[in-house]
Amino acid sequence: MELADLRIFKAVVDEGGVLKAARKLHRVQSSVSARVRQLEAAVGTQLFYRDKQRLLITPSGEMLLAYADKLLQLSEEARSAVSGSQPSGTLKIGALESTAASRLPQVLAGYHHAYPEVRVELVTGTNDSLTAAVAQRQLDAAFVAETPQGGNLCSMPLFAERLVIISAAGHPRIARPQDVAGDSLVAFPNGCAYRRALERWIGHGRQPVVRVLELASYHAIVACVAAGAGVALIPESVLATTQHQGLARHRLPDAHARIVTPLIWRRGESSAALSALREQLRAQPAAA
């Protein structure tokens, strides 16, 4: 079993098939297929179920993938340590859209300046989808809104956020859950921690959330709220980046308004690139 075989195997898993893996690795498709079969012969078990044009990873393949991740990571760390070089390779991170827009630009700019050999890939998503992606090794780390309890994930608290309710400018003052009775909730799809926070607050007042308008970006959410489509809960840091007129903001009690953004990653799995990011985040002043 060679590291090159493990890289090819991991690429097939990450890309969801041989064709995309071959394109990523700049190899011909037949070569990638042959190396996968050689790896299966070397480990003595089937790593993929083959269904026409699809490859589905087997339980044995899932087990090997965990070891492949660790071995490839150790190989990269050993190369960097021996050569004295800076962190390199690819760092796949996820973030809430709010964090990506308001908190990460300076972080990523500083990181890129310090470690130009690291290729950073950033994806955005909901709290739940990002947490699952880290646990399933689709991402190296993610900036989320809820600290996972137990399991195989570590966390590092970072940014303190204050959440505010926004409405159209003509909406009466919102101070109690009863004040949004009859309003639609404008929010990200299920899995969004901020949506859950607003639904919990509304539920404390025994007010049911009847209608939800689900959108995929804060720009769309803010625009729809300004147009009178409903109310939304967003971080003040995001509101500061918008230019929309016709909005009113309403403060929540601290118990519902305060939230901390942590960075999460898998326990015992940290590449040199991820370790460098964590060190940079530790060194920066705490964001209020």
UniProtKB/TrEMBL annotation:
PANTHER family for the chain: HTH-TYPE TRANSCRIPTIONAL REGULATOR, HTH-TYPE TRANSCRIPTIONAL REGULATOR GLTR
Molecular function terms, GO-annotated: DNA-binding transcription factor activity; transcription cis-regulatory region binding
Protein name: LysR family transcriptional regulator
Domain HTH lysR-type span(s) in chain numbering: 1-58
Family under the similarity heading: Belongs to the LysR transcriptional regulatory family.
PROSITE patterns: HTH_LYSR
Transcription regulation is among the record's keywords: yes
Source species: Candidimonas nitroreducens
Keyword Thylakoid among UniProt keywords: no
Pfam families: HTH_1 (PF00126), LysR_substrate (PF03466)
SUPFAM superfamilies: Periplasmic binding protein-like II, Winged helix' DNA-binding domain
Keywords of the record: DNA-binding, Transcription, Transcription regulation
